[in-house]
Amino acid sequence: MPSPTLAAAQSVSVPGDLAANLRTHLDFIAAAAETGVTLLLFPELSLTGYEPTLAAALALEPADIRLLPLREACRAAGLTAVVGAPVQGPTGLQIGALILGADGSCRVHTKQYLHPGEAPPFVPGSGGEPLELPGFKGALA
What we know:
Elements: E1 6-8, H1 18-34, E2 39-41, H2 55-58, H3 68-77, E3 80-89, E4 92-100, E5 106-110, E6 131-133, E7 136-138
Parallel strand pairs: 1-2, 2-3
Antiparallel strand pairs: 3-4, 4-5, 6-7
């Protein structure tokens, strides 16, 4: 089984501008696809920027229609991307890692251990299932 090719997207987010950040993510996904990347990792809160005062208004859910272009791009490229956004969890607003699968799926991993200054507005999450790809099994942390 071949080893996966991992890449870190060193993207810069426009604070609070989801549309602009989605376009940047699509550009990174396209570039990653051209080089055969299997797993593309974006920074924490990459879709919204690290904006605690705007986080509640910018929260996303896995089924959010605004994620469809990213999900389709990952499916078409055959890669998995992990993007960051605030998510509304059962106990409140959480820092989420949205795992956009090569099959077009979207799962959520939430940050369990917050750093000083992240609460409020964020509350600890519950983590998530291990990330499994052909030839790779790991955890987001």
